[in-house]
Amino acid sequence: MKVSQRSHVPPFAVMDVLAAANQRRALGHDVLNLCAGEPATGASDVVRDRAVEVLRSGDLGYTEALGVPALRQEIAGHYQRWYGVEVDPARVAVTTGSSGGFVLAFLASFDVGDRVALARPGYPAYKNILAALGCEVVELDCGPETRYQPTVSQLMEAYYGGGLDGLIVASPANPTGTMITPAELDAVARWCGDHDVRLISDEIYHGIAYSDDVQQTTAAVYADQGAVVVNSFSKYWAMTGWRLGWLVLPEELVGPVDALAGNVALSPPALAQHAGVAAFTPEGYASSAENVARYATSRAALLERADELGWRPVAPADGAFYLYGDISGTGLDSETYCARLLAEADVALTPGTDFDGVHGRDWVRLSFAAAPETVARAVDRIVAWQATL
Questions:
Q1: Which residues are paired to 319 by β-bridges?
Q2: pLDDT tens digits, residue range 285-315?
Q3: Total domain count for the chain?
Q4: Whole-model pTM above 0.70?
Q5: Final residue of a structural domain among 258, 280, 302
Q6: Which residue range(s) make up the domain with 370?
Q7: Is the CB of residue 228 less than 8 Å from the CB of residue 249?
Q8: Final residue of a structural domain among 280, 310, 342
Q9: Same domain, 95 and 29
Q10: Cα separation, 55 vs 139, whole angstroms
């Protein structure tokens, strides 16, 4: 029987690494898993407690396609508290994780054949989902000279080189952790608005930042120019398995996303939505802030040991919880490096080929979302193992 061409996308390699790490752990190996961007703590107590209350109440039927009103209201309030931005709750769409948000945003924004730009290196699901939807992906080669973020000059080149219908930006970015300054975001957003290019801003790592030099700002301020914001409870609120995210939409996309959401998933997970309201309480914010402090401890320790690791260069880890480094000095390509590191030292990292099909064979990504002591032990093993090469 036929298998669609649109389904022929590469698998998300980090999931393959995760599966291999789990297999070794099942065999009794003490595997230190730093491949996945998954906070070690899980959801805060206040969220868990709220989930228990909801389970006991039995109120777990379908919700509105765009989410329960209480959660949409809290998300809108979050933008006022954090950014001083007024967001109408009617423009908030609760989604099944940011992954579900990307599918809805892409479906509502782009047609088959549309050209959508994104940075390379970058999160692989962007281009894979776009490809499955029949869009043409335009990769922008973003290295140290642009701090791994797209520039207006790159957009101009792509625009006049074949047209452009959309742009995806991520700040903090995966895998590099780099952030867009407010001035840079303003320039990019205004360029997109002037050229009828849909800006989609991935802000799922907002709140996880370490540099005072780069302040976080949200593309929600550019909604009147067509910008779409994607966010999630998975990272800052450590709720990965709850599969809960959201979109902040411009007015013209609210109706299309509502219709698509109702057809694609009926509604996001009801339990996660009701519990997610508690994430915006003072207790919820405080728990997340404690997590960020732990990530900062691990990040500082990693940077202090950068010379021992010998990864040169490393991307500026302004935010998120990743160290993206060049391991070409070891003489191994990243896929071989990661496979051998897991097999010989029981440490799981992600090869850069997952994020960059051109230069990724020289890079690996280390996630420091695990407990600081786990990260420290992993670095000890990596340094010792590299000494044997």
A1: 209
A2: 999 999 999 999 999 999 999 999 999 999 9
A3: 2
A4: yes
A5: 280
A6: 5-43+284-386
A7: yes
A8: 280
A9: no
A10: 45
